[in-house]
């Protein structure tokens, strides 16, 4: 039972053996031990040199120091090795397919120039929405067009010369036509409006160029290979942009109003200004009519100011309807696909995103996004909004209720312990502090541990400040990486996060007359943004109509009753 006693018994047994017998055994053991040591040394001296020769012949790769599996397969075919190699190739292909978002993106970019393009899939769940083959084909065709006609090419130079000609008459742009997006509004509006203009560019075989300068390049990577989508600083009309408006000489809507535009007159125009912002009038809205699209297709340069996601109304133009149906069989995924294709955070912004994610979100069992934007509150925290937020997240089982009984003193087991990280984005810290204190001071009925985190609190929107926009873009992207998302009504900031993530968010309804809405929030019909200012006009009948009741996949928005949204047929 005790080691000392066992050792004592063993020594006594040895002492009791006859002296001569123990001597013979001792000599025999010494002789056998010596032989074993000699044999081991000899075997070692033979095996070591042989092993080194084998390694030298087959095992060393000068490129990376490791042997390649294919070499062994070549020397001596082996079913197991070949199978393993096929599995490895398949895994590499699957990983490449994931990084390129199922063919949405193309390879060839320098990885160090845009880390997010090749790393974003590591932080996001695979999208349940797959891009159609027709959409992929259209994107590849557009990329070729942009490369052929983009800035720096002979075609671009010739097309820009048309803007400098004083005389009227027939003009030829060598097959390259352009639509220029003018920088306008806040970052969320800019992102969703650019996606709309890009969709229009693909439908009309135009090249999209964006105004934005160095700040734009600081926020986003170039989306197109071996070319740029940035409008050159010395663009001929750039100095006139500030003067473009609804009463400008080349404004499409004003020319319609004055009956100055028709099939004959449009052929002499080098450019037109399109005013598609939230304050556009009934003449500007004729852009969404078939007849006007037939006129616009002959104008080499279209200069567009918009802060809207106007894609839903493009689906109501008969000449685009079939093409859009093939591009987007799942109608409510337009921004989800185009947003992930176009908008890749720059390395500076990607650093903000990944550092925060690793520090506060990576280890969570579940990540909840909570985007809070209150438009009509002058300052401070609204008790009504606070109540609405808490009611929404608890009623929808996004966050657990607080425990008040004896259960709060019971410690959960390791298997029961679940960490939920809540990412709050808001211009102020008030709502974050309330939630953080609430879930720190009280346990939950589910025994989940709730972590509340807020990256920044800028106080108010500062559209023209670079660091403000960096943080805003980083927070939109972080929200899109969450598992479940709550956004505020009317907010394009939340629309971007929802769309990039392919999430059907819960929308906090806007409060009217200082009363809490009931229910406090509702589920989005699709990940796509809402078109806040759609036209209500039947172009064929030339009279007003409810454009949210024309086709089943264009409906009124959940948060804005007069808005339009793309949804899948139910």
TrEMBL record:
Keywords, sorted A to Z: Cell wall biogenesis/degradation, Glycoprotein, Glycosyltransferase, Golgi apparatus, Membrane, Transferase, Transmembrane, Transmembrane helix
Residue ranges of the TM segments: 40-60
GO biological process: cell wall biogenesis; cell wall organization
EC number: 2.4.1.-
One GO term describing the cellular component: Golgi cisterna membrane
Signal peptide extent: none
Subcellular location: Golgi apparatus, Golgi stack membrane
Pfam short name (any one): XG_FTase
Bilayer topology: Single-pass type II membrane protein
The keyword Secreted is annotated on this UniProt entry: no
Coiled coil: none
Chain intervals for the UniProt region annotation (Disordered): 1-21
Top-level taxon of origin: Eukaryota
MF terms in GO: galactoside 2-alpha-L-fucosyltransferase activity
Reported function: May be involved in cell wall biosynthesis.
Alphabetical list of PANTHER family matching this protein: FUCOSYLTRANSFERASE 2, FUCOSYLTRANSFERASE 2-RELATED
Family, similarity comment: Belongs to the glycosyltransferase 37 family.
Protein name: Fucosyltransferase
Species this protein is from: Arabidopsis thaliana
């Amino acid at each position: 039972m005790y080691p000392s006693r066992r050792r004592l018994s063993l020594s006594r047994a040895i002492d009791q053996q006859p002296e001569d017998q123990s001597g013979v055994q001792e000599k025999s053991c010494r002789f056998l031990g010596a032989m074993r040591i000699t044999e081991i040394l000899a075997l070692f001296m033979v095996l070591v040199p042989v092993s080194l020769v084998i390694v030298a012949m087959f095992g060393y790769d000068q490129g990376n120091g490791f042997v390649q599996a294919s070499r062994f397969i070549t020397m001596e075919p082996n079913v197991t090795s070949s199978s393993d190699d096929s599995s490895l190739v398949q895994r590499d292909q699957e990983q490449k397919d994931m990084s390129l978002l199922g063919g949405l993106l193309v390879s060839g970019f320098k990885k160090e120039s845009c880390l997010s393009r090749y790393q974003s899939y590591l932080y996001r769940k695979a999208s349940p929405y797959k891009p159609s083959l027709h959409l992929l084909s259209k994107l590849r065709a557009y990329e070729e067009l942009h490369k052929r006609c983009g800035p720096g090419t002979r075609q671009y130079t010739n097309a820009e010369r048309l803007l400098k000609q004083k005389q009227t008459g027939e003009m030829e742009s060598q097959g390259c036509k352009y639509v220029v997006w003018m920088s306008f509004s806040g970052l969320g509006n800019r992102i969703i409006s650019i996606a709309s203009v890009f969709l229009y560019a693909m439908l009309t075989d135009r090249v999209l160029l964006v105004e934005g300068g160095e700040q734009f390049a600081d926020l986003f990577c170039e989306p197109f290979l071996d070319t740029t989508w940035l409008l050159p600083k010395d663009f001929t009309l750039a100095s006139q942009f500030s003067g473009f408006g609804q009463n400008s000489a080349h404004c499409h809507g004003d020319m319609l109003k004055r009956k100055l535009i028709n099939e004959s007159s449009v052929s002499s125009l080098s450019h037109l200004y399109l005013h598609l912002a939230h304050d556009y009038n009934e003449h500007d809205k004729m852009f969404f009519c078939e007849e006007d699209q037939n006129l616009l297709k002959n104008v080499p340069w279209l200069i567009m100011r918009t802060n809207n996601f106007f894609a839903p109304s493009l689906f109501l133009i008969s000449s685009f309807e079939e093409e859009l149906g093939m591009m987007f069989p799942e109608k409510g995924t337009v921004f989800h696909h185009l947003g992930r294709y176009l908008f890749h955070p720059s390395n500076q912004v990607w650093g903000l995103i990944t550092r925060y994610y690793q520090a506060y979100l990576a280890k969570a069992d579940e990540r909840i996004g909570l985007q809070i934007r209150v438009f009509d509150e002058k300052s401070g925290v609204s008790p009504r909004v606070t109540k609405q937020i808490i009611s929404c997240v608890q009623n929808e089982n996004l966050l657990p209720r607080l425990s008040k009984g004896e259960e709060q003193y019971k410690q959960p087991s390791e298997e029961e312990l679940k960490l939920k990280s809540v990412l709050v984005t808001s211009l102020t810290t008030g709502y974050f502090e309330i939630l953080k204190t609430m879930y720190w001071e009280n346990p939950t009925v589910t025994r989940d541990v709730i972590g509340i985190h807020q990256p920044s609190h800028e106080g108010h929107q500062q559209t023209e400040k670079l660091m403000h926009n960096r943080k805003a873009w980083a927070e939109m992207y972080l929200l899109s990486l969450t598992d479940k998302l709550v956004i505020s009504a009317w907010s394009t900031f939340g629309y971007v996060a929802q769309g990039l993530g392919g999430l059907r968010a819960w929308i906090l309804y806007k409060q009217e007359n200082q009363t809490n809405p009931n229910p406090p929030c509702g589920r989005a019909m699709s990940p796509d943004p809402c078109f806040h200012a759609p036209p209500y006009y039947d172009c064929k009948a030339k009279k007003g109509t409810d454009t949210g009741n024309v086709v089943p996949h264009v409906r009124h928005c959940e948060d804005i009753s007069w808005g339009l949204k793309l949804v899948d047929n139910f």
